[in-house]
Amino acid sequence: MNSTEKNIITHSGRFHADEVFGVAALLTVYPDAKIIRTRDPEVIKTGDIVLDVGGIHDESKDLFDHHQIGGAGKHENGIPYASFGLVWKKYGVHIVGSPEVAVIIEKYLVMPIDAGDNGFDITAPVTSGVDPFLIQDLMFLFVPTWNEKTRTFDQGFFEVLDIARKVLLRSIIRARADVLGIDNVRKAYEDAKDKRLLVLSERYHYKEVVYNHLETLYVVLPDSQPGKWKIQAIEENSGTFKLRKKLPEEWAGKKDKELQNVTGVSDAVFCHTGRFIAVAGSKEGALKLAELALKA
After folding, report:
1. Which of 180, 192, 289, 292 is most buried per CB count within 10 Å?
2. CB 198, CB 217: distance < 8 Å
């Protein structure tokens, strides 16, 4: 059966991130499929693919519900599967063409969504009355409010589905780039004479490597501004903003001539007040800043 004949069924009414992204993932495989939102058991039976409704998980039959007693299993780290995770488990590698990329997407996007849908807490509040804005909150923005009498749940679902498809596509593009660049990051670490400093030729995703090497304090790499380079201080680990070694205190908040006078680096451009990043007009300038930071 080709994609034009596929019916993808999910529940009607209020929508959540797991089925929105589950449908988004399925549309990368079956781009011309028809999306039906219903809770009618007889209509559900007609679905070629059913997710987040129906009370059955049977991957071989493309039935992806997790609301039945006992759920539908768990990710390796204990997070219960929601419908997005179940879809990704079957289709993820096919969608992205690589097990390595599929795993990155699972950890970066799928698991947090599955956790949120199942009430599985993966964040700890640190400030009373302030919560992180999560992907689930983005979904909620498109749910009709109590005083929007003409807005429908279906309207909101299809609006946010377009966003989810773009988020998924960009996540895949970035994950593929990360996989392509990781070997270059590892080689840069192996070639580094001073393991405290990693020098990269491109804006590779480096954190997976440096978090495994506690001696690495800074990374020098091209800045997002063309021609400029930056030194980036490394966090202690992936779960904190605490830095292994901040840039020198006297650099904080300074830019251009002021920073150049303090550092002696003629093309120094800027240092953030948080002392986690400084920018120079050249690779040589960024390396000079790194040398000074290591000695400080």
Report:
1. 289
2. no
